[in-house]
Amino acid sequence: MNKNRRLLTIIILGLLSAIGPFSIDMYLPGFPAIALDLHTTVDMVSYSLASFFVGICVGQLISGPLLDRFGRKVPLITGLTLYILSSIGCALAGSIEMLIVLRFVQALGGCVSMVAPRAIVRDVFPVEENAKIFSLLILILGVSPILAPTVGSYVIATLGWHYVFAVLGLVTAAILLAVILYLPESKQPDPTFSLRPKPILGSFATVLKDPQFYTYASAGGIASAGLFAYLSGSPFVFMKLFGVTEQQYGWIFAVIAAGLITSSQLNSVLLSRFSSEQIMKTVLILQSLVGVTLFAGTAFGVLELYSTIFLIFLFLSCQGFSFPNSAALSMAPFTKEAGSASALMGAIQMGLGALAAASVGALNAQSAMPMTGVMAVCALLGLVILIFGRRNIRYAGRPLDVQEEAIDLVEKC
């Protein structure tokens, strides 16, 4: 692969990786406008976010086998086409029920753009360069949550919320064209790869039986669900309760997202002195304390805008430490079933995230308490699962270098 083709491939993979974060974050500033236009409440609009998470959860379990069976480009082209069509549907949605359903379909189509780039990197580039390429993709993923709400807020203020989905559809159409014309097929279809439920479910069952996997995947997944509660509840809290504008909300979101990104980079520094287990336990304790403080401050009415932002900043900064370590520890026992473990871990995270997001909407208390309460509960449950789950983990006979290798891989990626 020559230098120009290599650069173009990296750019296309980066753009594909950004579709998911932009789909989640770009329309958040439009929650009040969507609620007003569709004659519903902001809490009901939050269900469209929860349905998107459910779609990603289901889609991750489907996309992996399809990419192995049919090659990389055919599932990618099919998924992006479905994403574009459903984005047009979201822009034209005349009811909240239609928007909720179409967001689920949009997630099913867009999910392949989250799974395929990592597979293509492993196919196309030399092993010794994978970490460098993954770092570039992660940089794009890190910047996306900062840019998406800010861009979305200006689109909504200028053109209206419908155009957020129109923009997502148009941009994805351009990416789809680039995929068709310039992205190489990195893996030929494999007719011998079985798509029957029995072998796929058998691989998943093997992973789920491992105490180390279900302990760290559950603890990390429930703790990270606090992030999804924030995503679901923050438009109402900041724009309705605190009265900030769409543009101001976009900047608040960017500042908080920057904390999560910074902490994830600091995590690699701490790993030179502490183990993943030590970091995980300490961070969940800290996140629980911050979560309880945030909820108590909300319940007693002592928090104002800036103190709320500060506590949420601290809460989500903890997430930047807990996720990479819980991911590494979850996958450490596996070699042959690493793909199934990765898919299950993502599905667990998104499934719990969808539940947290839906819970915020279901509580419908017209205050910040549903959001902050769910955030606090998520952190506390994650800590409890970690403490009791570690008793079931048996490290005897499990090579330490496998665990260290998995941790190193996650940190590089």
From TrEMBL:
Residues 9-394 form the Major facilitator superfamily (MFS) profile domain. NCBIfam families: efflux_Bcr_CflA. The chain crosses the membrane at residues 7-24, 44-62, 74-94, 100-121, 133-157, 163-183, 213-231, 251-271, 283-303, 309-329, 341-362, 368-388. Keywords: Cell membrane, Membrane, Transmembrane, Transmembrane helix, Transport. Belongs to the major facilitator superfamily. Bcr/CmlA family. It comes from Chryseolinea lacunae. PROSITE patterns: MFS, SUGAR_TRANSPORT_1. It holds the Pfam family MFS_1. It is a multi-pass membrane protein. CDD domains: MFS_MdfA_MDR_like (cd17320). This is Multidrug effflux MFS transporter. SUPFAM superfamilies: MFS general substrate transporter. It is found in: Cell membrane.
